[in-house]
Design a protein that fits this description.
mainly beta; Immunoglobulin-like
Length: about 300
């Protein structure tokens, strides 16, 4: 008994996008089938990611005799081979001299192409067999999942004394090539006056504003910025209280994609000088600088 194996492995994606026609020759042979014997070709058909599957071909007995020809899946072949029952055949043609066939492989499986000469006691047969598989491959179109940018604002000096600088870290990540990162300050100061002054650059990022620009390239931003409260007081009539530092990621059209914020408290300095009633040469005394809420921010002696 001669057994021929033709195993086809096809990897495909299950994305139903575009399809291209394919053709595979499964069998092209001219064997000799001994009298009283049968031979078969076992072919693995994987229809995953494929459509319009058709297998077709022909069988011609070239010696002028006839032969039986069957096509089974694995279950049908086992039933015929071990039990002698012809059940579930995709093709069943008996005592043929020339025969054309076609069928649709409806599931992934091993398929058996059988040339059966068991009924002949003395005569060998020489059939020519061809089998061709045509199908359309479903080609995936892989679209990258858009990356969502992230932005974070961390105030490192939650309490700032008038005249000092507020230190703020601004971090942005997953930026695309058309993203722009800007930061600005909102709080008790005159925004219009700040915009009109060349030294003031903490305006809200609207049309004509002077919001500080960080990035116009893809990747990430991780920068410490310093906000001079003295400039806000001198140039923009800032008063004491809570200031919000905001940062945002904008697209090329200027639309805000995402933003973050953190705040600091701008406080006023009070000088508390403890002077004795009488001062002598060489005497030491203490000068304390206190914010309005009473915390020590400076001590000199």
């Amino acid at each position: 008994m001669r057994e021929l194996f033709a195993v086809l492995f096809v990897l495909a994606f299950l994305y139903l996008q575009t399809a291209s026609a394919e053709s595979v020759t499964l069998i092209d042979d001219k064997p000799t089938v001994p009298a009283g014997k049968a031979i078969y070709y076992r072919v693995y058909i994987d229809i995953t990611g494929k459509e319009k599957n058709i297998i077709f071909g022909d069988v011609i007995e070239t010696a002028g005799y006839d032969i039986n020809f069957y096509v089974f899946d694995q279950k049908g072949f086992n039933t015929w081979w071990y039990e002698g029952r012809l059940i579930g055949a995709y093709v069943a043609a008996q005592r043929i001299k020339s025969y054309s066939y076609s069928f649709v492989p409806d599931h992934t499986d091993y398929y058996y192409f059988v040339l059966d000469n068991k009924y002949s006691w003395f005569t060998n047969k020489v059939p020519q067999i061809k089998a061709i598989w045509t199908y359309q491959t479903i080609t995936p179109i892989l679209t990258p999942i858009p990356t969502v940018p992230g932005i974070y604002v961390t105030v490192k000096t939650p309490t700032v004394v008038e005249g000092d600088k507020a230190k703020v870290n601004i971090r942005a990540e997953n930026l695309a090539s058309n993203h722009v990162v800007k930061w600005w300050v909102e709080g008790p100061y005159n925004d219009a006056k700040c915009r009109a002054d060349a030294e003031c650059s903490v305006a809200v990022p609207t049309a004509g504003s002077k919001a500080t620009l960080f990035s116009t390239w893809s990747g990430k931003v991780d920068v410490d910025v310093y906000i001079p409260t003295g400039i806000l007081i001198d140039k923009a009539d800032a008063t004491y209280g809570i200031f919000s530092v905001k940062a945002g990621v904008f697209d090329q059209a200027g639309n805000l994609i995402t933003s973050a914020a953190a705040s600091f408290n701008l406080v006023k300095i009070e000088l508390n000088v403890n002077l004795p009633s009488t001062i002598y040469k060489g005497m030491e005394f203490v000068v304390r600088a206190l914010p309005l809420h009473g915390e020590d921010v400076l001590r000199e002696q």
